[in-house]
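Re: beginner question about structure tokens

> Can someone show what the tokenized structure looks like for a real chain? I only ever see the sequence side.

Sure, here's an example I had lying around. Input first:
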Amino acid sequence: MKENMKRLITLLLFLLTAISSMPLTVHAETSTSVSMPEFTIRPVYPDNQNEEVGYFDLNVSPGMSQEIQVEVENMGDTQLQFDALLTNASTAPSGFIDYATPDVQDESMLLPFTKVAELSETSLSVQGGGKGYFTVLLQIPKEPFEGIILGGIVVKHVKTEKDVVAEKDDMIKNAYQFALGVVLSQGNKPVDSSFELAEVSTGVLNARSAVTAEFRNQSAEAAKDMPFKAEIFYEDHPEAVYKVSRDVSMAPNSVMKYEFIDQEGYGFGEGEYTLRATLL
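And the corresponding structure tokens:
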């Protein structure tokens, strides 16, 4: 599909081509820190798990109820406190599927993960060297759904008052959380891909001139490792003033606010610009 959009001083031309369904890979995520966390999480696979892939990949039926569990192992010597929350998978501005940050859903989202899943408990204490479990109740609607439902179970280590006092003078403060992906499907065929350019804006990011373009994935399918190419041209000049070529992934029914930042520092001056971007 091709769209022409006028936003302030910026003219953007956008081309999208459909992609086929691709396999999905979900990894646990943790924050960067100096030391290693003293805990880990893993899924307790139920009978309807499709494959043992390190996350939940469940074949569900209309109207079914099911409990799934996340095992939390405390590898330290002292008791640790944990909090859990559920998220809808979203797409980060840099083009990867994100399970741990606040989600931004496309208006085409009909059945988010947080609508069919609920935590039985949101807090958990685990003794040193022990294990504990967070339980998630799944309530699948009676009406069949197409594509997949994609979300995350986020487990975070909660610091005690003693921990906070001990780190008071530290320049680096440790904070850990892991996100475990959950894929729900009904064994149906993949839905057709549908992409759209929604909004385009200009501004300043990290003290650099930038153009932000919102790409919408309007289908209930995850798109993994799509080749993404973009060039920005100034007026009628044949040479692009900005180029990018890389792979991106998008969560189902999500928005990717991709940021084209002028890293060279020349700035996008006044005038008419053309952005040619392709997702394959």
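Each token stands for a local structural state, so reading them left to right follows the chain. The longest helix spans residues 161-166.
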